[in-house]
Amino acid sequence: MATVGRNIAAPLLFLNLIMYFIVLGFASWCLNRFINGQTHHPSFGGNGATMFFLTFALLASVLGIVSKFAGGNHIRAWRNDSLAAAGATSLIAWAVTLIAFGLACKQINIGGHRGWRLRILEAFVIILTFTQLLYLLLIHAGLFNSRYGPGYRDTDYGMGGTTADPMHKPTVAQPRV
Protein backbone atom coordinates (compact mmCIF):
# COMPACT_ATOMS: atom_id res chain seq x y z
CA MET A 1 0.00 0.00 0.00
CA ALA A 2 1.32 3.42 -0.94
CA THR A 3 1.97 5.93 1.79
CA VAL A 4 0.54 9.42 2.15
CA GLY A 5 3.79 11.21 1.28
CA ARG A 6 4.20 9.13 -1.84
CA ASN A 7 0.65 9.84 -3.02
CA ILE A 8 1.11 13.58 -2.68
CA ALA A 9 4.72 13.76 -3.91
CA ALA A 10 4.08 12.00 -7.22
CA PRO A 11 1.66 14.59 -8.70
CA LEU A 12 3.79 17.40 -7.30
CA LEU A 13 6.86 15.89 -8.97
CA PHE A 14 5.05 15.82 -12.32
CA LEU A 15 3.79 19.39 -11.88
CA ASN A 16 7.29 20.64 -11.03
CA LEU A 17 8.76 18.79 -14.00
CA ILE A 18 6.33 20.48 -16.40
CA MET A 19 6.94 23.88 -14.79
CA TYR A 20 10.73 23.45 -15.02
CA PHE A 21 10.37 22.67 -18.74
CA ILE A 22 8.31 25.85 -19.19
CA VAL A 23 10.97 27.87 -17.32
CA LEU A 24 13.66 26.31 -19.51
CA GLY A 25 11.79 27.32 -22.67
CA PHE A 26 11.07 30.90 -21.63
CA ALA A 27 14.53 31.48 -20.16
CA SER A 28 16.19 30.10 -23.29
CA TRP A 29 14.12 32.35 -25.53
CA CYS A 30 14.79 35.42 -23.38
CA LEU A 31 18.51 34.70 -23.12
CA ASN A 32 18.74 34.32 -26.90
CA ARG A 33 17.06 37.72 -27.36
CA PHE A 34 19.32 39.25 -24.72
CA ILE A 35 22.50 37.91 -26.35
CA ASN A 36 21.37 39.12 -29.79
CA GLY A 37 20.81 42.60 -28.36
CA GLN A 38 17.10 42.57 -29.04
CA THR A 39 16.06 43.94 -25.68
CA HIS A 40 13.66 46.39 -27.31
CA HIS A 41 11.45 43.52 -28.48
CA PRO A 42 7.90 44.25 -27.24
CA SER A 43 7.64 40.98 -25.34
CA PHE A 44 11.07 41.15 -23.73
CA GLY A 45 12.43 44.37 -22.20
CA GLY A 46 14.56 43.93 -19.13
CA ASN A 47 16.77 45.82 -16.69
CA GLY A 48 20.13 45.45 -14.94
CA ALA A 49 19.20 42.20 -13.19
CA THR A 50 17.93 40.45 -16.30
CA MET A 51 21.15 38.74 -17.37
CA PHE A 52 21.79 37.33 -13.90
CA PHE A 53 18.18 36.26 -13.52
CA LEU A 54 18.15 34.47 -16.88
CA THR A 55 21.40 32.66 -16.13
CA PHE A 56 20.18 31.33 -12.80
CA ALA A 57 16.71 30.53 -14.17
CA LEU A 58 18.33 28.38 -16.86
CA LEU A 59 20.58 26.68 -14.32
CA ALA A 60 17.69 26.10 -11.91
CA SER A 61 15.50 24.63 -14.63
CA VAL A 62 18.15 22.18 -15.83
CA LEU A 63 18.96 21.08 -12.28
CA GLY A 64 15.26 20.82 -11.49
CA ILE A 65 14.60 18.60 -14.50
CA VAL A 66 17.49 16.31 -13.60
CA SER A 67 16.36 16.12 -9.98
CA LYS A 68 12.90 15.05 -11.09
CA PHE A 69 14.40 11.99 -12.81
CA ALA A 70 16.03 10.94 -9.54
CA GLY A 71 12.78 11.79 -7.74
CA GLY A 72 10.79 9.62 -10.13
CA ASN A 73 13.07 6.70 -9.38
CA HIS A 74 12.62 7.32 -5.65
CA ILE A 75 8.83 7.50 -5.90
CA ARG A 76 8.83 4.27 -7.89
CA ALA A 77 11.03 2.43 -5.36
CA TRP A 78 10.15 4.47 -2.22
CA ARG A 79 13.02 3.15 -0.17
CA ASN A 80 15.63 4.72 2.04
CA ASP A 81 18.46 4.08 -0.40
CA SER A 82 16.73 5.93 -3.26
CA LEU A 83 15.91 8.82 -0.91
CA ALA A 84 19.58 9.85 -0.77
CA ALA A 85 19.85 10.61 -4.50
CA ALA A 86 16.40 12.18 -4.74
CA GLY A 87 16.90 14.30 -1.64
CA ALA A 88 20.36 15.55 -2.58
CA THR A 89 19.45 16.54 -6.13
CA SER A 90 16.19 18.13 -5.03
CA LEU A 91 17.96 20.14 -2.35
CA ILE A 92 20.52 21.46 -4.87
CA ALA A 93 17.77 22.26 -7.39
CA TRP A 94 15.80 24.10 -4.70
CA ALA A 95 18.87 26.07 -3.62
CA VAL A 96 19.57 27.30 -7.16
CA THR A 97 15.85 28.00 -7.67
CA LEU A 98 15.99 30.06 -4.48
CA ILE A 99 18.82 32.15 -5.96
CA ALA A 100 16.75 32.65 -9.12
CA PHE A 101 13.81 33.60 -6.88
CA GLY A 102 15.92 36.30 -5.22
CA LEU A 103 17.01 37.64 -8.59
CA ALA A 104 13.39 37.64 -9.82
CA CYS A 105 12.42 39.69 -6.78
CA LYS A 106 15.31 42.08 -7.48
CA GLN A 107 14.27 42.40 -11.11
CA ILE A 108 10.69 43.19 -10.08
CA ASN A 109 11.97 45.70 -7.52
CA ILE A 110 14.16 47.52 -10.06
CA GLY A 111 11.19 47.85 -12.38
CA GLY A 112 11.27 49.28 -15.86
CA HIS A 113 9.73 47.71 -18.93
CA ARG A 114 9.57 43.96 -18.69
CA GLY A 115 7.71 42.12 -21.40
CA TRP A 116 5.14 39.42 -20.84
CA ARG A 117 7.67 36.60 -21.30
CA LEU A 118 9.91 37.94 -18.54
CA ARG A 119 6.95 38.44 -16.23
CA ILE A 120 5.75 34.87 -16.85
CA LEU A 121 9.27 33.60 -16.23
CA GLU A 122 9.44 35.54 -12.95
CA ALA A 123 6.06 34.14 -11.88
CA PHE A 124 7.03 30.56 -12.68
CA VAL A 125 10.32 30.85 -10.77
CA ILE A 126 8.51 32.29 -7.75
CA ILE A 127 5.90 29.51 -7.81
CA LEU A 128 8.56 26.82 -8.34
CA THR A 129 10.49 28.01 -5.30
CA PHE A 130 7.59 27.11 -3.04
CA THR A 131 6.42 23.96 -4.83
CA GLN A 132 9.98 22.60 -4.92
CA LEU A 133 10.30 23.24 -1.18
CA LEU A 134 7.00 21.43 -0.58
CA TYR A 135 8.18 18.49 -2.72
CA LEU A 136 11.48 18.40 -0.82
CA LEU A 137 9.66 18.29 2.51
CA LEU A 138 7.32 15.54 1.30
CA ILE A 139 10.06 13.18 0.21
CA HIS A 140 11.89 13.74 3.49
CA ALA A 141 8.78 13.25 5.63
CA GLY A 142 9.71 9.62 6.25
CA LEU A 143 12.66 10.66 8.36
CA PHE A 144 10.23 11.76 11.06
CA ASN A 145 7.43 9.24 10.66
CA SER A 146 7.56 5.97 8.72
CA ARG A 147 3.89 6.35 7.80
CA TYR A 148 4.74 9.14 5.35
CA GLY A 149 8.10 8.04 3.97
CA PRO A 150 10.14 5.08 2.86
CA GLY A 151 9.04 2.20 5.02
CA TYR A 152 11.24 -0.69 4.01
CA ARG A 153 11.93 -2.50 7.25
CA ASP A 154 13.60 -5.78 6.21
CA THR A 155 16.50 -6.35 8.58
CA ASP A 156 18.46 -8.46 6.09
CA TYR A 157 18.56 -5.74 3.46
CA GLY A 158 21.97 -4.18 2.97
CA MET A 159 23.77 -6.56 5.31
CA GLY A 160 25.91 -8.10 2.58
CA GLY A 161 25.90 -11.54 1.08
CA THR A 162 26.79 -14.76 2.79
CA THR A 163 28.64 -17.75 1.41
CA ALA A 164 26.16 -20.19 2.93
CA ASP A 165 23.53 -21.92 0.89
CA PRO A 166 20.32 -19.83 1.17
CA MET A 167 18.13 -22.90 1.01
CA HIS A 168 19.70 -24.48 4.09
CA LYS A 169 19.89 -22.07 6.94
CA PRO A 170 22.24 -23.01 9.75
CA THR A 171 20.55 -24.40 12.79
CA VAL A 172 21.24 -23.43 16.33
CA ALA A 173 23.17 -26.09 18.24
CA GLN A 174 21.23 -27.72 21.05
CA PRO A 175 22.80 -27.42 24.48
CA ARG A 176 24.13 -30.63 26.03
CA VAL A 177 22.25 -31.96 28.95
UniProtKB/TrEMBL annotation:
Superkingdom in the source lineage: Eukaryota
Protein name: Uncharacterized protein
